[in-house]
Amino acid sequence: MTLSAIWGASFALIKVAVDAGVPPLWVACWRCVFGATALWAILVLRREPAPRDLATWGHSAVAAALLNAVPFVLFSYGETRVGSVLAGVMNATTPLFTLVFAAATVPEERHPGPRRLVGLALGFAGVLTVLGVWHGFGSKGTTGGLACLAATCCYGAGFAYLRLHLSARPHSATGLSAVQITCGGAELALVAPLAAGVPHWPGAGPATALLVLGSVGTGFAYILNLNLVRTAGATVAAAVTYVTPLWSTALGVVLFAEPVGWNTLLGGFTVVAAVALTRASTRPGSTSQGTSAGQSGDRMGNQADGSRGVVDFVSEQEADQHGRLTEIPVTKAEH
Question: Is residue 322 domain-resident?
């Protein structure tokens, strides 16, 4: 419950920052900076080595662009035009986009099966309902909703990329996550001053929101997610995905008095049901198990093998995209 509340609150924290005039590029940049700082601190406290090979850093830079830099900016921009409620609902479509990219890029996912295809169609019907497409696509709200949808599309591509290029590397998940978020922060630090100007002090409240968004939502939440998978298993941890939109909706209504239309409720429910339907269609050879006692550090019990689906990989162990740090399964346990 704590983990879903943190992830659901991320959209409210973004809203506080952008409403205070912090440009979306700087919201995303500070989020990565504070998140990376928290993760490097964890690495130091645990005395874990960080990845040093250029290949890992190179792939992490690509993953950071897809999972952090670009979607963080898109969500922040989207929330300048729509409320945190709609942004939170749109975030729930991440597994659906992952299914699309997995089918296109991962050999064992080329044939997702009829149930997942039905879930995919149902999910995007829910998206169209949330967007209220019958009003047309020219409104400010629709533009913001599409920006949030584009962010989850990036998440889908990013998780497929992780599965292909980083899932089997012999590094701790904390180390890989720290490198990834650091790369995302560096990418944004290069672009933000040129495109958004010099950052300014937004006030104590928005600054605190950014600090919490990065250090807690992108740092501490990772530790909670790791502990949850270890103690309760990956399947239980995956249920957090379904509860997160409830938190984002509740906080949006209570903190910002955001209106919640019937189409947002109906569309959000449809999206969550669609994600559950795609998860129910697990390949016969796939597994979802907790951490074995013999594994050390940040290693999970979920092993990446040829039969394990990318959608299951993401749904069980995804990091928020809006800052969730992915625990990457490996093929060899570290002792």
Answer: no
